[in-house]
UniProtKB/TrEMBL annotation:
Residues 31-280 form the Solute-binding protein family 3/N-terminal domain. It comes from Ochrobactrum teleogrylli. Transmembrane segments: none annotated. Pfam families: SBP_bac_3. InterPro entries: Solute-binding_3/MltF_N (IPR001638). Keywords: Signal. Residues 1-24 form the signal peptide. This is Transporter substrate-binding domain-containing protein.
Length: 283
């Protein structure tokens, strides 16, 4: 009996020490470096004077104020942004980065602060300006049979054509899974680059987020760009745009989650998204 009592006492002491040690090891964040691309308008872009602007730039300032931390925003190429995060070059990513199952194998994410579908775009006089199921929303995980039927309809129309897409993007994941056996996929470092090739006729279509394409079509010189085909959501496309974080940093993840939820609740995300996208992207 005494042995059992001694064991229980030792166990309780060990648990107390472990909890105290864990508490002591919690990282106190007072400064953050956040990476963005600086070339994915309206989420983020670089102005002529070299400063960053856009939805995520404004939102990051709001979130940092709520978290009471000093933040610096830096621009990084999108195709290497996750490896650079894991290498410790910065603390977080806000770069139109969607939380997908594949990416969650490598990094953690906050709750989402933006949700828009992926879709195609082409030129208004193109034979692909009215692809099958244009304007319809396809939920890739909810009704897989119906989604696959619609995808097959689109594939039949674009067979053998060339589609531009940004490297390491969600659009590339969509094309790789559903369209690579019917079209030639051409990767670009930035979305601006594939837009230029679309206008010059070097690609027949591009794939990107609805938010990006809606904004791109408003730019001077892009009046002939139109969206076409279905709006793709869910499944491999994830749960929305979120803050990318290194694994095993729960304190920072909690800070961002609480700040984002507060920004949703008081309408800040709605206000900023309507300013930058023209519609509400609140998840």
């Amino acid at each position: 009996m005494k042995t059992k009592g001694l064991f229980k006492a030792l166990l309780v002491s060990a648990l107390v020490v472990t909890a105290a040690s864990a508490h002591a090891e919690e990282k106190k964040w007072t400064k953050l470096t956040i990476a963005t691309e600086g070339a994915f308008r309206p989420y983020n872009f670089t102005k002529p004077d070299g400063t960053l602007d856009g939805y995520e730039i404004e939102l990051s300032k709001d979130l940092c104020a709520r978290m009471k931390v000093e933040c610096a925003m830096i621009a990084q190429p999108f195709d290497g942004i996750i490896p650079a995060l894991n290498a410790g070059k910065f603390d977080a990513i806000m770069a139109g980065l969607t939380a997908t199952p594949k990416r969650e194998e490598t990094i953690d994410f906050s709750v989402s602060y933006g949700l828009t579908p992926q879709t195609f775009a082409t030129l208004k006089d193109s034979p692909f300006a009215k692809l099958p199921h244009t304007g319809e929303t396809l939920y890739l995980a909810k009704d897989e049979a119906a989604a696959q039927k619609a995808i097959d309809d689109v594939k039949a129309e674009i067979k053998g054509r060339t589609i531009g897409v940004q490297t390491a993007s969600l659009g590339l994941s969509l094309l790789d899974k559903y369209f690579k056996d019917s079209a030639d996929i051409r990767e670009y470092k930035t979305t601006d680059q594939h837009d230029l090739d679309l206008k010059s006729g070097r690609v027949d279509l591009v794939v990107a987020s609805l938010a990006y394409l809606s904004d791109a079509a408003k730019k001077p010189g892009n009046e002939d760009i139109v969206m076409t085909g279905p709006f793709f959501k869910g499944g491999i496309l994830g749960r929305g745009v979120a803050v990318g974080l290194r694994k095993n940093e729960p304190e920072l993840q909690k800070m961002f989650n609480e700040a984002i939820e507060a920004a949703k609740a008081d309408g800040t995300i709605k206000r900023l998204s309507e300013k930058w996208f023209g519609f509400d992207v609140t998840p």
